[in-house]
Design a protein that fits this description.
elongated; 7-stranded mixed beta sheet; about 35% helix; 16 strands; about 425 residues; alpha/beta; 9-stranded mixed beta sheet
């Protein structure tokens, strides 16, 4: 991304870029919160504004830029934004080992530390620092303990807080504690839509509108904090079902393991740049009247694979005994699945709508579950009902885990480079 890519800014982008300036009516706010649609330009503008503010207010000081993971921070902020800063006259030098970027402007220098807040244990990573400011990208995807620890680190006079996120469930702690209480916490709140990004073409806006459905459409396109209800994949219909391709050249198996609960395995083949569920195994011990042992499940796995050379068997990480059984036989590479449920559902939904994964005729159990897999409306938070979800889970493991020459499943690219950007 280059500076010339920004031909103009929307009123909300301009407010975000300048809210801390002396001429701004918002200059006395302690924090800024930006939420709303994807691709609305809020992350890039916030990142640039954060660095400009840091140099306007401080010298030789420490700041933090936080995301769900270090990879997402580099992908969402460092890679697109720091070349723009260099065009503005800043010098950016990265220390990979320290997860720190030193930025200079003339004789002034400030340090920006990168943090990932992926789980509750991440709060310990940021303890002990004294910060002049913190920017939390994807704030709604990070645990409350990490965000609160990051906020507590900002004890320097004049420090300010910067929050950015896409909407989630309205019961989410960030919505209740920060957005709903923004006035009492003296926060500037800016709600973005795709129309607030002048650099996004009409064609791209339409593409994103077609990409999402259900609660994800309302959140990521309309920018609303809404509860998920109804079918989890409401768009799925007969048009997504296809014949088995004859030219698959790469194979994986994904497995959701159960003893009393059903066990589901999906055989995936790659044809061109698309993946197809070409066959499956499904055993419901309650329905069939008998339980299978790990060795019997392994025999079913071998039968499902046949003479094909599979690159890996992706297994529910909690299925320790079955993972050990597969490893003991020494025939297949075992991959522990990424079991982040909501992230996996989003990736699966994207992959299905983009045609990156496809379901073949004859895979009757997964086709049946598509019509029954629903959100749990009795839960305060987004969660699927724990029924009719076993083939759905093994599909989610596949979509969230299989590498395609990229990190974070099918959909993210990130690279690390030494030295200057």
């Amino acid at each position: 991304m280059k500076l010339e890519d920004f031909r103009e800014f929307s009123p909300k982008q301009l407010a975000l870029l300048s809210w801390w300036c002396e001429e701004s009516p918002f200059k006395d706010r302690d924090a800024v919160i930006c939420d709303g649609a994807v691709r609305s330009g809020k992350t890039v503008c916030m990142s640039i504004s954060f660095v400009l503010w840091a140099f306007y207010r401080f010298k030789n000081s420490d700041f933090a830029i936080c995301g769900k993971t270090i990879t997402s921070v580099r992908r969402n902020i460092v890679t697109p934004v720091f070349p723009i800063l260099e065009q503005l006259g800043f010098r950016c030098t990265q220390s990979i080992s320290k997860n720190m970027i030193e930025i200079k402007r003339g004789a002034n220098v400030n340090r920006f530390y990168l943090f990932g807040g992926k789980d509750e244990s991440s709060a310990a990573l940021i303890q002990g620092l004294t910060l002049s400011g913190v920017m939390l990208d994807e704030a709604a995807l990070m645990p409350r303990s990490f965000c609160e620890q990051a906020v507590a680190r900002c004890s320097v006079d004049g420090s300010r807080l910067w929050f950015n996120c896409n909407p989630e469930n309205p019961s989410h702690w960030f919505y209740r504690e920060w957005i709903k209480k923004r006035n009492e916490k003296n926060c500037l709140y800016l709600h973005f839509t795709m129309e607030d990004n002048p650099s996004l073409s009409r064609e791209m806006r339409e593409r994103y509108r077609k990409l999402y459905s259900g609660a994800f459409y309302e959140r990521f396109v309309l920018g609303k904090w809404v509860a998920a209800d109804g079918l989890i994949y409401p768009f799925f219909n007969e048009s997504f079902v296809c014949e088995v391709p004859e030219d698959c050249d790469s194979f994986y198996v994904s497995c959701d393991y159960g003893t009393v609960n059903p066990t589901s395995m999906g055989l995936w083949g790659k044809s061109g740049d698309k993946w197809y569920r070409i066959d499956e195994f499904y055993h419901d011990s309650r329905l069939r009247g008998f339980q299978m042992t790990d060795e019997e499940y392994y025999g079913s796995l071998v039968k499902l694979i046949g003479t094909r050379q599979v690159e890996g068997v992706i297994v529910d990480p909690s299925a320790a005994s079955f993972i050990e059984c597969i490893r003991r036989h020494g025939e297949f590479n075992v991959i522990k699945a990424d079991n982040d449920v909501l992230s996996g559902i989003r990736k699966t939904s994207d992959a299905l709508k983009q045609g990156r994964i496809n379901i073949c005729r004859g895979c009757n159990d997964i086709l049946r579950e598509f019509t029954l897999y629903k959100w749990d409306e009795s839960s305060k938070y987004d969660a699927p009902r724990k029924e009719n979800d076993h083939a759905m889970d093994d599909m989610r493991y596949f979509a969230a885990t299989v590498p395609d020459g990229k990190q974070d499943g099918f959909f993210a690219v990130s690279c690390q480079r030494e030295g200057r950007f």
